[in-house]
Amino acid sequence: MQKPFAQRCIEPDCGSTFELAAPLYVCSRCGGLLDVDWTEPPAVDLDSLRNVWRSRMTSFEAADRSGVWRFRELLPFAADVQIVTLNEGNTPLYNAPRSSEYCGVDSLQLKHQGANPTGSFKDTGMTSAVTQAKVLGARLVACASTGNTAASLAAYAAQAGLLCAILVPEGQVSYAKLAQSLDYGAKVLEIEGNFDSCMRVIRELSDDGSIYLVNSINPFRIEGQKTVAIELAEQLAWQVPDHLVVPGGNLGNSSAFGKGFRELLALGLTTRMPRISVVQAEGASPFAAYVNGQRGEFVDEQHPSTLASAIKIGAPVSWKKALRAVSETEGQVLTVSEQEIADAKAVIGRDGIGCEPASATTVAGIRKLRAEGFIKPGETVVAVLTGHLLKDTDYVNKYYNNSLETEHGQRIQGTFSNPPIQVRGSLDELRSVLSSLG
Fold first, then answer.
1. Those residues with Cβ within 8 angstroms of residue 93's Cβ, 6 or more apart along the chain or in another chain
2. What is the pLDDT of residue 214?
C-alpha cells in the first residue's frame, strides 16, 4: 500500500501536486522546485517509533542496517520496495575539543558524513534516488558533479545494475573522486567549463526522459538526505542543537536538513528547529551575496573560484529551498576565505577527525559567527562535515608543505604547517629528533 505522499511545487503562487511516479525534477506547470510532501501527516506513536528506529540498529536486515532506511516510516516508498543500499548513514557525531577552542565555543560537535560508504554525504540521498530510479524502471542514471555526487552515483548504480553516465568539469575534479567513479564502472564524460556548464547540459539531456537525473534538484535525493536530521536528533537524545552549520555548494544539504527538522517538529518528535547557517567560500558565494543584500535578486556567479572544489558552484539549483531553511530558523549565510578554510581544516585534523576542504567551511564559519556574537559561548553547536579527508589529499600535502596556492596564484599560509622531517637514519639523529617533539 502506497504511503500518503505526493510531489508538490514549492512556489507559493503555484503549489501544484503530482503523483510520486511522475518522473519530474521541477514543476511541469511553473518550473519551480519540487518537494515530496505528506498529503496527510502520518499518525504515529512517538515513543513506539523511537523504539522501533533504535531496535533496528541491532538487526542484520539490509533495510535496518541503513541509516536512511531504518527511518523508512518517513520515506515516500511502499513497504515492499526493493531498496538499493550500501549500508549508508549511521555516521558518527564527534566531540571536537580543539575545534571548539579554536571557534571560542563551549560545545562543538562534528557530524561526519564522510564516514559514508563512498566517503561523502551524497550516499544518504543517492540510496533513495537510485531506489526511485528502479521503481520508475530507469535504465540509465546520470548526474553532473564536482566529484562526490559522481562517486556516489557510480557506486549505487553498480549496486543496482544500472548504466551510469557522469558529467564532470575537465581538470577540476580531485583524482581521488574521479578514481572512485572509474572503479565503480561509470562512464565519465569530461566537459569544458565548470560544474554549472555540466549541470546545464545534463538538465537539457534529461528533458526527453532518456536518462534519470539524480542531482539534488531531484526531490527524492532530498528525502534520503533529510534522514541525517533524524539521526542527529536521535544521537542527541532528541534534543536539538542551538545551531547547525553546513557548507554551501549546490545547497541540497541545507535544504535537506531544513526539511528533516521541519518534519520532526511537525510530528512532535522535537520541540524546535536549530538555527541553520550556511557557509560558502568567498569566491563561490552567489547565495551569500543574495541573502546578505549585495544583490537585489539571485544572480548566478559565472566564474566561481575556490580550492574547496566540492562547493565550487556558481548556479546552485536548490537555493530557494536553502533560503527557506535559513529563513524559517533565523540562521545566517556567510562566506569564509581560502585561508580560513585551510586553517580550519588543519584544526579539525588536530582533533583526529579530518575532512575534505569544503567541510572545513563550517568550522571556519562558526569561528566567524562566534566572533560576531551570533553564536553565544554556551550554546550548543553542530558542524556538518560532508566529505572524507582522503577525497583531496593533494590539498592536504600542499598545505602542510607550504605550497598551497589559490587558482589565482595567491599563496595560502601553512599556519599549522607540519611537513615531513628528513632524517638520514642514524640512531643518534633519530633520538635527537624524537626528543625535540615534546
1. 109, 110, 111, 112, 232, 235, 236, 382
2. 95
Q: How far is CA 248 from CA 82, 329, 398, in A?
A: 32, 16, 24
Q: Grid coordinates standing for 104?
A: 571560542
282 domain residue, yes or no: yes
236, with CB counted inside 10 A (0-12, 13-18, 19+), is middle
State mean pLDDT over 403-408: 94
Residue 378 lies inside a defined structural domain of this protein: yes
- Domain interval for residue 110: 93-117+221-400
Hey, what's the cell of 410?
595567491
Question: What pLDDT sits at residue 303?
Answer: 93
Q: Is the dihedral of CA 370, 339, 290, 226 positive or negative?
A: negative
90 burial class (0-12, 13-18, 19+ CB within 10 angstroms)? Answer: middle
Distance, in Å, from the CA atom of 211 to the CA atom of 198, rounded to the nearest integer, reads: 15
Q: 100, exposed or middle or buried, with CB in 10 Å at 0-12, 13-18, 19+?
A: buried
pLDDT at 1: 41
β-pair partners for 95: 109
Q: What is the mean pLDDT of residues 312-332?
A: 96
User: Does residue 313 register a pLDDT over 90?
Assistant: yes
Stated as kind and residue range, the H or E segment containing 167 is strand 163-169
Domain of residue 311, CATH code: 3.40.50.1100
Of 108-117, 204-213, 266-275, the least confident: 204-213
Angle formed at CA 307 by CA 255 and CA 107, multiple of 5 degrees: 55
Q: Is residue 354 part of a domain?
A: yes
How many domains in the chain? 1
Helix-strand-coil split of the chain, %, nearest 5: 40, 15, 45
Q: Answer whether residue 108 shows pLDDT above 90.
A: yes
Does the residue 342 lie in any domain? Answer: yes
Share of the chain above pLDDT 90, in %: 87
3-state secondary structure of 194: coil
Specify whether the CB–CB gap between 8 and 37 falls below 8 A. Answer: yes
Residue 384 cell numbers, joined: 556538518
